């Protein structure tokens, strides 16, 4: 495989950082990684994760997906503007009742998660089409397949990404370009912490008591245990992304979390769309004790399997 230039967005932390480090450290040196972030003062964690690669297989550059100018400047700085693989990863979350969120906050989510991808492609797609070569990898989410309680706007932004890509994929095929949506479930990153802290700070005065209680007593109360039971590491998602990049025929959709797949399968099982909504409703409002017991059971199984794996190694 010839050396591939990879541009990754949102590499200051989490999944973007893990993907940039994993590709830069590739033993076969198949990638030159342009790891980008909007704020270069946050590069220390990436430098630490892939120190030996900096200036070799890894270059760190500024790129804000909300600024066309910064995208253009970054791409112009890459030799021959040649991006073989784009990993569109930068994203932000938003949780809570819509009554407590301003339209401006919602627009920022759409501007980053959806229009961020559109801006990148407006700059990079024409070159890929001309070369009839390129792979566009997008870090979407299981919430791009199925909405979750109190994630209305975030989920809408990922649905927008998925619809956009489904449409574009048909045209891309004509130019021999690949498009792949990576769909993680919960991943333990800064995202989880930031979203939870913002949720805790939310002013509930604009919403009725029943909704406010639902958000604090059900959603926020269970938030951490969902991540602890079902959460993956960013490094795990990076391994999945590498496999998709290296695949001879990369899939259009790739879910990274086997524990979550039974839930997304509900979406595909019922064309009327009632099955997943009904199941989530019952899980949250009627069978919450069973739901919590299942999460604890999964947590225990995962802890035991890690423990036996560790014991096996020594
Ligand atoms: N964590 C999860 O549970 C989960 C699950 C499914 C999908 N995802 C998706 O995975 C992607 C990465 O999230 P993560 O979990 O790794 O979260 P993270 O650790 O918070 O990383 C998000 C990255 O995006 C960057 N970013 C935000 N706005 C940006 C902008 N305007 N321009 C450039 N970069 C920007 C952040 O930079 P700053 O440090 O400057 O803010 C950060 O580097 C997101 O698209 C997210 O929707 C996450």
TrEMBL record:
InterPro entries the UniProt entry points to: 17beta_DH (IPR011348), NAD(P)-bd_dom_sf (IPR036291), Sc_DH/Rdtase_CS (IPR020904), SDR_fam (IPR002347)
Residues that coordinate or bind substrate: 141
Pfam families reported for this sequence: adh_short
Assigned GO CC terms: cytosol
Gene3D superfamilies: NAD(P)-binding Rossmann-like Domain
Catalytic residues of the enzyme: 154
One GO MF term: estradiol 17-beta-dehydrogenase [NAD(P)+] activity
Keyword field contains Oxidoreductase: yes
UniProt record, GO biological process: estrogen biosynthetic process
Protein name (database record): Retinol dehydrogenase
């Amino acid at each position: 495989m010839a050396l591939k230039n990879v541009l990754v967005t949102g590499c200051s932390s989490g999944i973007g950082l893990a993907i940039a480090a994993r590709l830069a450290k590739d033993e076969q040196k198949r990638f030159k990684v342009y790891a980008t972030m909007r704020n270069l003062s946050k590069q220390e964690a990436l430098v630490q994760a892939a120190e030996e690669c900096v200036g070799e297989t890894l270059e760190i550059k500024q790129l804000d997906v909300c600024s066309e100018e910064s995208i253009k400047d970054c791409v112009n700085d890459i030799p021959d503007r040649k991006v073989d693989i784009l990993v569109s990863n930068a994203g932000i979350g938003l949780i809570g009742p819509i009554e407590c969120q301003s339209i401006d906050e919602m627009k920022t989510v759409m501007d980053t998660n959806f229009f961020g991808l559109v801006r990148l492609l407006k700059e990079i797609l024409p070159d890929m089409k001309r070369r009839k070569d390129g792979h566009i990898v997008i870090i979407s989410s299981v919430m791009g397949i199925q909405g979750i309680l109190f994630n209305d706007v975030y989920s809408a932004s990922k649905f927008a990404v998925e619809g956009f890509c489904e449409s574009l994929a048909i045209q891309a095929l004509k130019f021999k370009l690949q498009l792949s949506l990576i769909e993680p479930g919960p991943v333990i990153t800064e995202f989880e912490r930031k979203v939870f802290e913002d949720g805790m700070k939310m002013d509930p005065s604009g919403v009725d008591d029943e909704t406010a209680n639902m958000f604090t007593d059900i959603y926020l109360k269970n938030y951490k245990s969902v991540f602890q039971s079902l959460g993956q590491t960013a490094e795990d998602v990076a391994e999945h992304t590498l496999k998709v990049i290296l695949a001879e025929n990369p899939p259009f959709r790739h879910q990274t979390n086997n524990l979550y797949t039974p839930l997304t399968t509900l979406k595909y099982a019922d064309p009327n769309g009632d099955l997943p909504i009904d199941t989530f409703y019952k899980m949250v409002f009627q069978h919450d004790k069973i739901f919590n017991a299942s999460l604890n059971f999964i947590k225990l199984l995962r802890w035991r399997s890690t423990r036996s794996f560790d014991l096996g190694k020594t």
